[in-house]
Each structure stands twice: as structure tokens, then as C-alpha cells.
Design brief:
Chains A, B, C: Residues 14-111 form the Proliferating cell nuclear antigen PCNA N-terminal domain. 3 copies of one chain form a homotrimer. Chain A is of the alpha+beta class and 259 residues long. The first copy, chain A, contains 5 helices and 18 strands. In chain A, strand 16 (224-229) and strand 17 form a beta hairpin. In chain A, helix 2 packs antiparallel against helix 3 (78-85). The radius of gyration of chain A is 20 Å and the shape is elongated.
């Protein structure tokens, strides 16, 4: 087999807005990320240096106007890619192509043509595997992103931490904060808990707000977010974009509480 | 008489916008203020530490959707209250309630519930009594706030001080500034002096702009401002808000001029 | 001849927007400028202290609502004039008048009247004469300002320099940048090269972006810009404003390239 045949190839066409959402999601946590270019789409994940917050994006091949890849991995400087992609208009179509010889990513839209150096994927910190916590997440909540975002904004006025507290009996999520002198409680219940929501038993998770606001900032206001949590286990939220062909999730370890 | 019977009580419902206007007015001068909760409404006043600028707000009970109080006094951290109230939308209804036991103010709107610690009113600097200068204010001017605001903006380009100079003969208010090399003069006259305006004799007041711009900043652009001044006496301006049920005033000592 | 008869006079009425464009153009390069007040209009030019970038504005008498001058020169603090003129609304009419005795410029609009001290023109650095390079500029390109501005924005992501490279054969302008690892190429061709464009022979100019972005920033997005360049000679761009009665140009020396 010749060297040429071993080379990875990647060529895709995508809406600027979908690519931007992907970049924003990863940038919430890191500045460099590994993109895995599978036949059926792109996957990327990143964890912050403190191993507290993790984010993951999947873009199905169907999220692209056209997509072709044969399974390589590329290391991407997200800040640089963001600089370039943010110059495109929301309705621009972006053409991406991996130059196999130079290991550069070619980015084209309108009359713009940029060649961006890639990073050796082996030089980028790997994300740890996510534990499967399906049996620990007793609260499964579906909420409009804007509502969750506002709830967390209120907590941010009061404290550096936010508590998600789901009460099974009452079918309510409390987004709480406790400061030195002040307290806040934003309740999400009734029709604000969208269909599919289920609180199997009481759950209680305390999170550092610094990480959570970063992690949640890229979520589009009109996204339906599925938030799952338990008690003293990590919190997971996920949502779809790109007409359901894009999938993003955020995962944050809880703050351990003194007893 | 039991302790319980002596406790102060306060519960009120108010438009977010009206409460915000009240907070903004006081914040022009101080960060903490005493609210007096009378049966017929709320009163608050504040003077800056240098005793140069003073502001006062009265909110009649009719400015509220519902109001009940029995004459207490509460000390309020305005920055903190502003943080919370500014999260409400302009058309939100805010529910305020004094928790007599914890001495906290409960603030509720939509699905938000915040409990904010109050400050001991005795720990907050009292405002001095305002002298009655009705016989010193020979110029009584009614002007749209936006016009006065623009006039003062021009003065601010030229100098650290603004002079209000009312000329009785000509029926004109000059808003003047004199810099080291440049001068400005914005004239308010004719239809721009609204009905009720009267200049009994020439008046001339020099004010520090730093204080005046802070004091005037919260005035809504479309408010009709009544500005009264004399010569080397404090300047008073006042306006109504909340459909006439709210009343705000600013009062500033003049800069003494060398002769 | 009496002293009074020797005095320079100047009185003019102009749209705030046209005056603002004139100020912005000069401010791209300097903070003080000499305005020459000829019978047929105002001319001003300025060069940056490093002699790299130069700008020039001509305002025909026809650009004014009314104009009268007899050939004087005034030194203007652009920052100060900008502060004042930016307080006018875009559709305000500004009245300018030179006070011959005090050497101040009187600026009036609406009810505002400002008297601004002028600077001795002899205290302001003269601009050097522009060399005539008509026979060196082999590329004569007409492009919409917004397109050129976007092209330069992309270059700014990649490097501190931008290269204008016109290819005669292909009838294309490349706006290129070369960074340590990344490259960009924005092409302007076809209908984007507006009528009048002509590339006589290949041209290649490398410019410092810091200067060029400052110089180009005041150009209105919808202006048609005429850009002329050669190889290792200064680049000139020019455009009209004020319905063709205003004329602005920017001129920048190339960065000398190592061979």
C-alpha cells in the first residue's frame, strides 16, 4: 500500500451557522480540540483542564450540504477557526477541505479562501470517557434554554454556585443559590417542564457557576434542553441543532458538599 | 403590647419599570438608602458624601398595584436591589414583602423568588433637611428632559462646570460652559420653555457637571422637568413618573464663584 | 490697506453628515489639521508622523448649503471638532463662521452655539507633496468599499500586512495575507470589479495593515472606491461623497520587501 493511499481525506460543505454553533460549543471549555472525521459525520469533545466541565458535539453527515471523510483526526485551534468563520454571514455556505500534504484545513466562503494550519492531535489533551450515569440521573427535565439561562443568571447574582433541586412529589425544579446574606429560588414547573420530563426521586446537585455559565452560554435560546441530574453526581444537559442533525451536550461534575 | 405587634410590615406589588426608576434615581447619589414605608406610600432621599447633590423620590400608594405598610423604615443596598430588579422585564409585576423575622426583603416576579438582606437604617447616613428656597428661586423653568440633557452634554464637552443663566427680559435660559479656550451656549426659549415657565428676575447658577450629570442621568427623556434656580443658591429640578404617582427631585448646591 | 481688510473671513452652512465624513477622514491619520479655505471650497490633507499614510479631503463649495471664504488657512483640533459635531444629528445643518478677531471658529446647530479656539496653522506639521505616480499605477480598480473592507478584515486575522496583487491576465485582484502558519486570499473579480477597472500589467503591493485599516475605516460602506497600485510603489484609493461634491483619498507607502 502506498503512502498516498494511507492519507486521510476530508471535504465538506456546511452552513456557516452550524459550523459556528459547533465551534462555540467546544470553545466553552477549551481552545484546541480534536475533530474525528468519520464516514458518518464529525465528532468532537473537550474537557477543561480541571476535569470539571466537558462538552461534546456530534454533527451527522446529514448536517452538511455535502460530506466526505474517511476516518481521520485533526487538531483544531478553535480561536483561529472562530476568527475566520465569524467573518462569514449566517447564511453563507462554507467549504472545508483537508490538504493532505500540508496538513492544513482549507476554508472557503464567498470570495474568501483561507488555509489554516492544523495541530497534531496527539499534542491535544484527550477527553476522559464519560461514565454512564443513566441509573443515577433520577431527574430528567426538558426545559426551554432561555428559561434555564435566566434561572442561572439569577443564581449568579447571589452566589458562585447554583443548586439544581428536583422535587419528585411536587414535580418542580428549583434553581437555587445561597449567598452570605441573600438567597434565590427560581422554580420551573407545570407547562415550563416540557413533555418527557420526569422526576423519579428527589435530586440535588450543587455546581460551580463559573463553569456552568461558560458551558451553557453557547446554547441557542430557543433550543429545548434535556437536563438530567441526580444527587452528588455529574449533571448532563443536551440539545439538538442543525434541524436535528447536530447534537451537543455539556457535562459538569458537582461540587462536593461538606456534611 | 407584644413584640409581634410592634413589628413593621410591608407588602406591595409594583411595575418593574416604576421600581427601577426609583432605584436609578437614588443610585445617582448613593449606594445605600433608607426607604420610609408610610401608610400612603414610600419615601426615600439621599445625599452624596460631599453634601453637594441630593435626590428624593416619593412613590404614592397609588403608584403600586397594591400597597400595604404601617410606617417602618428599611435600609436598602441599592446595587444589590438593582441587580435583581434589572433581571425583570419592563412589564413584569414585582411583588415585595418584608419578612419581619429575618429582616429580609422578599422580591418575587415570574418564577423568580429572591430574599435580600436589609441594612440597619441607623447605619445609613441621614440626608440633611432641604432648605426652603421658594423665595430665592426666581427662575421657574419647565423643559423637556431630553432638551436639558442635550444642553448639559454640550457643556460637558467644554468644561467641568455648567452655568444655568436665565434672562428675565428675553425669556431665555442659557446653558453655558466656559473652558480654557472654548465656550458653549445652548439656549432654551420660545416653545421650548413649556407652559408654567416664568423668569421673575435674572438668575445665574454655576454647577459642577460631575454631580449634575449623575443626578440627571436617571430622568426619562420624555419627562417634563421643572427646574428652579436663583443666583448662588442651590438648583432644584423635579419631575413626575408612574402616571403622576411617582415624584422625583434633584437638588444641587452651586459652586461658589470667586469675585 | 487697513488691518481689517487683510483679515480672513469664512462662513459656511453644511450638512452635519458631510462635515462628519470630512473630520473622520482626517482623523484616520492625525489629530490636528490645516483647512485651506479657498473661494471654491475647503481642502485639507494630513500625513501620519511616520510619513507612511496620507489622507486628503476636498469639499467643493457646492457641498455646502452656502459657502463664503476668501482664501485663509485655519488649524483645527480634530478631536475637539469631532466631539462637537458628533452631538449634531445626521440631518442637522451646521453653521460655521470664523471670528476674525478672536481666531475662533463658531459652530452652530439647532439651539447649540460653540466657540472653538483654532490652532496656529504654522504650528501644525505640513503634509509632504504627493508624488505623481500615474505612470506607476498599472492596476486601476473600482470596487465597492464594503467588499474591500471585508477583504482587508480577513487579512487582518492572518497577518500584520496585506498584499494587493493584481493579475493582468486573469483580471483579478487578490487581497492576500501570509501568517506564520496560515494564509488568506480574497479574490475580487468579474462583476465585483466595477466598470472602469483596468489591470495594465501585474502589480504587487505589500502594506502595513495597522495604517491601512485606520485609513480605510472612515470610507462609507456603499462608496465606490477607486484603488490604484503598482509594484513597490505607494497605493492610492479615492472616493466621492456629498453627492459628488466631496472627494477623499488615502495614500500609503508600501512596505519594502526583502529579496
Amino acid at each position: 500500500m502506498s503512502v498516498a493511499e494511507q492519507r486521510e481525506t476530508f471535504e465538506a460543505i456546511i452552513d456557516a451557522q452550524v459550523l459556528q454553533q459547533t465551534i462555540d460549543t467546544l470553545q466553552a471549555v477549551v481552545q484546541e480540540a480534536i475533530f474525528t472525521l468519520d464516514e458518518d459525520g464529525i465528532r468532537a469533545a473537550a474537557v477543561d483542564p480541571g476535569n470539571v466541565a466537558m462538552t461534546r458535539v456530534d454533527l451527522d453527515a446529514a448536517a452538511f450540504e455535502s460530506y466526505w471523510a474517511d476516518g481521520g483526526r485533526i487538531g483544531v485551534n478553535l480561536t483561529r477557526l472562530d476568527d475566520i468563520v465569524s467573518k462569514a454571514n449566517a447564511d453563507d455556505i462554507i467549504h472545508l477541505e483537508l490538504d493532505e500534504e500540508t496538513r492544513k484545513l482549507n476554508i472557503r466562503f464567498r470570495n474568501v479562501d483561507v488555509s489554516m494550519a492544523l495541530i497534531d492531535p496527539d499534542a491535544i489533551r484527550k477527553e476522559p470517557d464519560l461514565p454512564n450515569l443513566d441509573d443515577k440521573w433520577h431527574a430528567d427535565l426538558h426545559v426551554e434554554a432561555a428559561m434555564l439561562s435566566e434561572a442561572v443568571d439569577i443564581a449568579d447574582l447571589i452566589s458562585d454556585h447554583v443548586r439544581f433541586r428536583s422535587v419528585a412529589d411536587e414535580g418542580v425544579l428549583h434553581v437555587e443559590a445561597q449567598g452570605d446574606t441573600d438567597d434565590s429560588d427560581v422554580t420551573v414547573e407545570g407547562d415550563d417542564l416540557l413533555p418527557g420530563s420526569e422526576i423519579g426521586e428527589d435530586c440535588n446537585s450543587l455546581l460551580s457557576l463559573g463553569y456552568f455559565t461558560d458551558l451553557f452560554k453557547p446554547v441557542p435560546n430557543d433550543a429545548e434542553v434535556r437536563l438530567r441530574h441526580g444527587t452528588e453526581h455529574p449533571v448532563l444537559f443536551e440539545y439538538e441543532f442543525a434541524d436535528g442533525h447536530g447534537f451537543a451536550e455539556g457535562f459538569q461534575a458537582p461540587r462536593v458538599e461538606a456534611r
